[in-house]
Automatic annotation (TrEMBL):
SUPFAM superfamilies: GroES-like, NAD(P)-binding Rossmann-fold domains
Record-given protein name: Zinc-type alcohol dehydrogenase-like protein
Subcellular location: Cytoplasm
This protein's GO CC annotations: cytoplasm
Amino acid sequence: MKAVALTHYLPITDPNSLMDVELDKPVPTGRDLLIATKAIAVNPVDYKVRAPKETVEPTPKVLGWDAAGIVEAVGPDVTLFQPGDEVYYAGDITRQGANSEFHLIDERIVGSKPKSLDFAHAAAFPLTSITAYEAFFERLNIDVDGANKGESILIIGGAGGVGSIAIQLAKIAGLNVITTASRPESSAWVKKLGADHVINHREPLRPQIESIGLKYVDYIALFNDTDGHWNAAVDLIRPQGHIVTIVENSKPLEQNEMKMKAATFSWEFMFTRSMFQTPDMIEQHHLLNRIAHWIDDGRIQGTAGDVMSPINAKNLRAAHATLEEGRAIGKIVLKGWE
């Protein structure tokens, strides 16, 4: 089968950083589905895993943690799907990724593809949807059915992949959504997705928050530069408020004011359930199905910003470069094999 893989961890400008390869078609066992991959999307985790280091892989390593396709075959313990089903999913970072013609994935972290979307636009949703859903409704404990209606959330990094779906989930929950964007095109994007207020994360945040009539916000989601925005977030979170981040830090995160405010801080990492095989792993199956229903009901807009074809090393290198440079708006998707 065709795949895009690496053996050495190299700068994306090196043509060997991602290579077109031929691999054996895998066989499903246990609760695995064998997926015929029709489209994939690219996320920051892809280039972070691919980042230059001394490690050399003895066999080609396949990246990619966003896909949509058709169930080709199932393992003997599968109960949720059957061959021919159209699905979408984000995958498991401890296994081979989805940048291949056929891919094995545990059925418990797979959802039924939204009926209203083609494979390319469906592939833009899984990783970001799981991340935003878990961040808001599990880490921040926002009520998905609207019990927190009218409360405020500040999303730092609203125009990226996670921010694009997070804005919409926050509106479904009835929140007053403030998000950051620094360019005219990214500001237009987040407004289109439903943001109530847009502020610039390259400028001091407190004066901008106060200009819309707030002293504090109830929730803060750090989807960009945890180190750079931490102090502003701690200053702006209300007493007993909640902060969540998905971006790793490289410096200590000062906690004294968090203590004074009795504020809580949570990490969101969407691979945790599959990485540790948690007892509630199947929750990702359920939430992906819920997202699919919202998409089909018109409550969530597509977040694909750029769709490229075909799926090959050249196009994936270009997608990685765009993400690394911070130029992406929405998700970058690749569809079809040559």
